[in-house]
Amino acid sequence: AQKITQTQPGMFVQEKEAVTLDCTYDTSDPSYGLFWYKQPSSGEMIFLIYQGSYDQQNATEGRYSLNFQKARKSANLVISASQLGDSAMYFCAMRDGGGTSYGKLTFGQGTILTVHP
Amino acid sequence: KAGVTQTPRYLIKTRGQQVTLSCSPISGHRSVSWYQQTPGQGLQFLFEYFSETQRNKGNFPGRFSGRQFSNSRSEMNVSTLELGDSALYLCASSLASGGTLKQYFGPGTRLTVT
Predict the structure, then answer these.
(1) From chain A, which residues contact B within 8 Å (Cβ)?
(2) What average pLDDT does the structure give for chain B?
(3) Which helix (H) or strand (E) is A26 found in, with range?
(4) Do B56 and A53 touch (CB under 8 A)?
(5) pLDDT per residue over B22-34, tens digit each?
(6) Which end of chain A is more exposed for a tag (fewer CB within 10 A), N or C?
(7) How far is the C-alpha of B74 from the C-alpha of B21, rounded, in Å?
């Protein structure tokens, strides 16, 4: 069965500094996708970055990068140069194409990031 | 290109009533998935529709149902509402079903059951 674990309930970072949000996953399917979403207090889930299991390079999207370590089954999100607007809940999620998990995203518990001025 | 839209954004219902939520996917997207988010259970998958067919269903009672129309718009229905159904209901769309395709979410419908 798929499982996503985010072990940091809350993280604090100073504005303009970098921060890493941890995510580990478990799946038996060799083909899967890993996602990070940001959820501000408004509730909308904002797509940040995607990493495919067969991608050779770590994904980057502007200030966001994904530190993908396949052998360790980790997919940590790195936010560089934090901004006050980055304060939100962050979810790691996985989607694979196999069996009963077909088509669905499995989410971690989330990490609340607070950026201090 | 317009994003995923959900209506209504907020809803208050009474126990025992039923409710219908609507989701319009991004133009060209044919897959629509629904998720329930609560403080206690987090984000849980309800079901996914692709080409008007339900492709997968999460572990929810039969009171939760959905459908998809030929234009890919989807509705979710909850009958005989319970207090525990109070949640944020999120809809997500992707180009096709399954695999590792990206899903984009709408703003959600916040349902309160009193």
Answers:
(1) 31-33, 35, 37, 42-47, 50, 52-53, 91, 93, 95-97, 100-107, 109-110
(2) 93
(3) strand A24-26
(4) no
(5) 999 999 999 999 9
(6) C
(7) 8
